[in-house]
Amino acid sequence: MGLSEINFDGIVGPSHNYAGLSLGNLASASHKGDPSYPRAAALQGLAKMRHNMGLGLAQGFLLPLPRPNGDLLARLAVDDTAERALLAAAWSASSMWTANAATVSPAPDTADGRCHLTPANLSTMLHRAQEWPDTRRQLAIAFADKRHFAVHDAVPGSLGDEGAANHMRLCESHDAPGVEVFVYGRQGGEFPARQHEQASRAVARLHGLDPMRTVFIEQNPAAIAAGAFHNDVVAVANGTVLFTHELAFADQQGAYETISKAFPGLEVVEVPASAVSLEDAIRSYLFNAQLLTLPSGEMALVVPEECHDNAAVWAWCEGMLAGNGPIRQVIPVDVRQSMANGGGPACLRLRVVADPATVDPRFLLSEGKAELIERVIAWSWPEQIDPSDIGNPALVRTVVAARNALLAALELQELG
Predict the structure, then answer these.
(1) What are phi and psi of 9, to 5 degrees?
(2) Distance of CA 115 to the CA centre of its chain
(3) Coil, strand, or helix at residue 192?
(4) Domains of the chain by range and CATH?
(5) What are the backbone angles phi and psi of residue 210, rounded to the nearest 5°?
(6) What is the C-alpha separation between 412 and 406, in angstroms, rounded?
(7) How far is CA 103 from CA 21, 214, 276, 279, 287, in A?
(8) What's the CA gap between 312 and 319, in Å, rounded?
């Protein structure tokens, strides 16, 4: 079939809850303690995947990680006297946001001509730092063909790495050599910057990237302070287009010049702060969208419904569509359960450029498989989880059984 972009979405796990564990993620903090609806969340995510398939796009998925994480609870000696946040960390379903699963460099960019994947260590947050060994295990199965893929260990945890959420790629076509852009941060007010510059540089070296086609850019500390805890909250790229807020980078014009030097065909679609404030951009997740090339060659932006609900954001989108820019469609989707925990359409997907024939087919979505997954979620995922339910033995049994049912249905019991 040749190389194409496959979006691997995370299936929302049965322990999905609102514990407010993510410092700097304003949506997560504002919904801390609210009841969550794992079944609705998982079905919303699945509907987004099916919607993208309906657009003619290749779609894959990654499975929820095992929760609660008994090994983490044991290592932290969590008991009735421990802080609830430690218990909640072991229950977190945050692996649903596969933009943080890994950084991916397609074969046309790498020295050995293979697609390289490095799991993110996510070391700045306990509930996420536990993920990478299980994530790597899953990636090693999905991308097991060593003729086409190389799956690495995470970089050392002292260098915080948040994966594809701080990584962009520009190219004339997905199967052509591209320019990879790594965005790192520094302290942003009271919030920590999660992506370390040296982590980005280590990943680039691991992947064998050409230094002349690799760019390192600093995120704007003001954006981090405003709640843009990852670059993909204020900027996203696809093909030749960089779609970005005016205040995304520490040196906005310098960033454009540096990227243009490596990629002369760069098209910048900049949203001015006078039209959409950082606050509105972060509240609506305008940039945490899937910027996609459709089979027709047109580019579409798949945004959360919150963008349609925000007057300033939607007015800007309508004005953009009335012009003659490269983005020709804006498509709202319902991912409200994910949004309430701080993740939009872009958070829910990991972009992998590969020949689908080289990927383990169990991780590729079809309409029949989507119906199967939907049935398992409908009868086994909890309908609601209240904060006081975390740690309840009956809920433990429900969550474990639900995940096991999905693994069995997909014949992926080796992930048990």
Answers:
(1) -90, 150
(2) 18
(3) coil
(4) 4-415 (3.75.10.20)
(5) -70, 120
(6) 8
(7) 23, 14, 29, 27, 19
(8) 11
Q: Is 347 a catalytic residue?
A: yes
What end-to-end distance do the CA atoms of the chain give, in Å? 32
Task: Tell me, letter by letter, the H, E, C secondary structure of 222-245.
Answer: HHHHHCCCCHHHCEEEECCEEEEE
Q: Record the tokens describing residue 308, joined without a space.
A: 């349609």
What does pLDDT average to in each consecutive run of 10 residues of the chain (416 residues)? 93 88 54 84 97 97 97 92 87 95 98 98 93 98 98 96 97 97 81 89 98 97 90 97 98 98 98 97 96 97 97 98 96 91 91 98 98 98 94 97 98 96
Give backbone dihedrals phi and psi of 59, rounded to 5 degrees, phi first.
Answer: -135, 130
Q: How far apart are CA 190 and CA 38, in angstroms?
A: 31
Residue that the structure tokens 């060994």 belong to: 133
| Measured distance CA(290)–CA(298) in Å, rounded | 14
CA atoms within 13 Å, Cβ hemisphere of 60: 27
Cis ω before 387 (30° cut-off from 0): no
Say whether 168 sits in a helix, a strand or coil.
Answer: strand
Which residue shows structure tokens 């790495």?
161
Phi-psi label, residue 51: left if phi above 0, alpha if psi -120 to 50, beta otherwise:
alpha
For tokens 């800007």, name the residue.
Answer: 316
Inter-residue contact 352 to 8 (CB < 8 Å): yes
**What is the SS3 assignment for 287?**
coil
Count of Cβ atoms closer than 10 Å to residue 42 Cβ: 30
Which residue in the list 207, 230, 245, 306 is annotated as catalytic?
230
The active-site residue out of 16, 115, 116, 162 is 162
Token look-up 């670059």 returns: 231
Do residues 97 and 166 touch, judged by C-beta distance below 8 A?
A: no
Q: Give the tokens for residue 141.
A: 């199965």
